[in-house]
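Help needed: design a sequence for this.
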């Protein structure tokens, strides 16, 4: 089976043309699912957008880094319901835009949102499966090597596996278009389809 190389110039031209012909609908969806949630996050969880001042330069770097990590962990723990709600809204918005920009029938906002809403559960499950697969593939070998008492080997293997993780992430980067555009609702089928579609184009993506 032949695999076509991705033409970035052609893809960009087509994308800008579609955006221009659907400007009003795109603006409505973007405002509802991206701008408003971002404003809500800034209003109700300002510590995420404007963290506390960094420790002084004279502070121990390890202590300073731990303080920053603790601060961010606490901020996410305190605001996880809001973060989850914003993430779901952005999922719906992204999938709606994908459906809109590939439908030559120029669907209404309601039709695009209906498609995005119906695609969201499948997209969420597919993303969880992909993240679990990557985490398992990287975390398990590194953990086993570290437990064996070889931290240097664990670091080296971790670097190699991190590169492999980026590759897998690219292979699964077309999950959203597969679900929203092709109408694939089975998460596992969507993962497999994305893997096939990126064959021969992984480096370009």
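Sure. Designed sequence:
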């Amino acid at each position: 089976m032949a695999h076509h190389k991705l033409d970035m110039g052609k893809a960009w031209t087509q994308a800008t043309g579609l955006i221009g012909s659907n400007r009003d609908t795109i603006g409505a969806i973007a405002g509802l699912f991206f701008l408003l949630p971002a404003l809500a996050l800034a209003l109700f969880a300002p510590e995420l957008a404007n963290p506390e001042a960094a420790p002084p330069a004279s502070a121990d770097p390890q202590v300073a880094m731990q303080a920053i990590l603790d601060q961010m962990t606490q901020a996410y723990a305190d605001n996880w319901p809001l973060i989850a709600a914003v993430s779901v809204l952005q999922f719906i918005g992204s999938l709606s835009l994908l459906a809109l920009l590939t439908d030559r029938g120029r669907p209404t906002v309601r039709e695009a949102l209906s498609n995005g809403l119906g695609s969201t559960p499948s997209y969420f499950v597919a993303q969880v499966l992909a993240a679990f697969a990557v985490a398992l593939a990287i975390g398990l070998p590194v953990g086993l090597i570290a437990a064996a008492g070889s931290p240097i080997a664990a670091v080296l293997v971790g670097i190699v596996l991190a590169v492999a993780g980026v590759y897998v992430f690219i292979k699964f980067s077309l999950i959203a278009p597969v679900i929203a555009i092709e109408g694939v609702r089975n998460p596992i089928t969507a993962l497999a389809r994305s893997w096939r579609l990126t064959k021969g184009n992984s480096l370009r993506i």
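Residues 61-101 form the longest helix (41 residues).
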